[in-house]
Amino acid sequence: xxxxxxxxxxxxxxxxxxxxxxxxxxxxxxxxxxxxxxxxxxxxxxxxxxxxxxxxxxxxxxxxxxxxxxxxxxxxxxxxxxxxxxxxxxxxxxxxxxxxxxxxxxxxxxxxxxxxxxxxxxxxxxxxxxxxxxxxxxxxxxxxxxxxxxxxxxxxxxxxxxxxxxxxxxxxxxxxxxxxxxxxxxxxxxxxxxxxxxxxxxxxxxxxxxxxxxxxxxxxxxxxxxxxxxxxxxxxxxxxxxxxxxxxxxxxxxxxxxxxxxxxxxxxxxxxxxxxxxxxxxxxxxxxxxxxxxxxxxxxxxxxxxxxxxxxxxxxxxxxxxxxxxxxxxxxxxxxxxxxxxxxxxxxxxxxxxxxxxxxxxxxxxxxxxxxxxxxx
Amino acid sequence: xxxxxxxxxxxxxxxxxxxxxxxxxxxxxxxxxxxxxxxxxxxxxxxxxxxxxxxxxxxxxxxxxxxxxxxxxxxxxxxxxxxxxxxxxxxxxxxxxxxxxxxxxxxxxxxxxxxxxxxxxxxxxxxxxxxxxxxxxxxxxxxxxxxxxxxxxxxxxxxxxxxxxxxxxxxxxxxxxxxxxxxxxxxxxxxxxxxxxxxxxxxxxxxxxxxxxxxxxxxxxxxxxxxxxxxxxxxxxxxxxxxxxxxxxxxxxxxxx
Lengths: 377, 257
Description:
The complex is a heterodimer. By secondary structure, chain A is an all-alpha fold. Chain A has helices at 2-8, 26-35, 49-68, 75-100, 108-124, 130-152, 157-173, 179-182, 199-222, 224-234, 236-241, 246-272, 282-295, 300-316, 324-337, 342-346, 348-354, and strands at 188-189, 274-275.
């Protein structure tokens, strides 16, 4: 034992005197003692005024470009854009569960479907407004996710993955086929809300809702809620030692993810105005997971790009749409072997540049990978 | 008055009696050492105190409250802070984020308020951030606030963990081998830091420690565990000469030291 050896070589007299605390500047001493292996802290000058103008200007141009895109495309493409936005909402939902909380979900289409059918039922059977349908879709999505969360408290890893898989299958094949609730195989009608019936208007409805959810996601990460969820993902024991109620916050992660998924489901249903159980198959669940992993777990920008790509690719290149699965698999392999942080990690230098850093390559030790928050811009 | 009063604590994992008949007292403002060879049950004892394990027998009283059966996060809210042997921080996050995580129990706003970014939550976040900066400054770590914990040298990670625990305003600290991986010089400096913290922050400390010079220098009282049982207790100088402790822990040569 190392301690014993060290001790042997030291005379006993050296270890008995207790210093007068008041006279020793302990902090200074600690600093000195630890200074030797310290890394130099690199203080970088911020960008110049012109640099900030360039950054802010380019960022604004990109955002306006995306927001104005529906103005410059035809009616069919407008519908594609809203489809992509719905996928981004769902991507955010999955990101909360897999990226932030470190839980797996291979049955996420169940939450989306529950939201879709709830919203459709509220609007076409109960004849209530779309907004009530949207809110209740969030609630039922949360309920469905909470159920799975209770399972996740007891199971981990592969077993949890299998349960989520089964959950998705049961939802698709049994629950979504109850004729009274979902119209059975014929599906349920989900008319668009007044004022948003046109494709263009619906795109902007999606933009608005996505913006709200992005805001919530941003606050989540910057509040004690998100921090508690990260801490639990990395080290449950340490999280509890910081006063975090591990059980409660695990469930909260599932519930928030469920709310997002339910809202995504509602938009999904009303975008296509009819929703059938066959929409919510396992291939969809797999796509959801793929788009978030390829986009970059834990990164909003990455999730946006990844989700939009996986939504649009089969629509734009519909001649190759049957290869979507293959391309997804290849991208996944590429991601896992080269940039585990996904697209977000690949474009990290650009994201850092927008944040005020000089434009530089990836560097060696800047990103420490854990498949999560480490890649957040 | 005892801060921590443990009586007849025992825990059994299947066929292994990990702890048995352990009585430990920590009084106000004391720094108490818990020593013992590897596998003696020291960390298991901490886990029983913190509620990670439920003891098979015995009681754990923190000040006026019986805490056996209460979950860990509630015990923390009573004012107990704990560090881990292998660093209980979220290493993939920056130092500052960890300082904020550590103050979770102090953040007085609801989950919804946080998600919607209501003013109460934003104001609280600012208070937490200011407090974190103050402690980082006190610990001499303020330059590293944006560094990812895993990128720091081990000794600094250890200090960061202490800073994080201090940020949660504990009255009683459980330190699990705070100087493991430190050089003798660093361990010496750490001892001064601990004495300083006790004076300035009115802390009571129970620490698992292998570094004998440190134990002798800073501890007021020492308990020695061996095979899950208390082997000896007493003032550090007594324990250092206690023949059984020396035989079990320090090695035969020290029996005559």
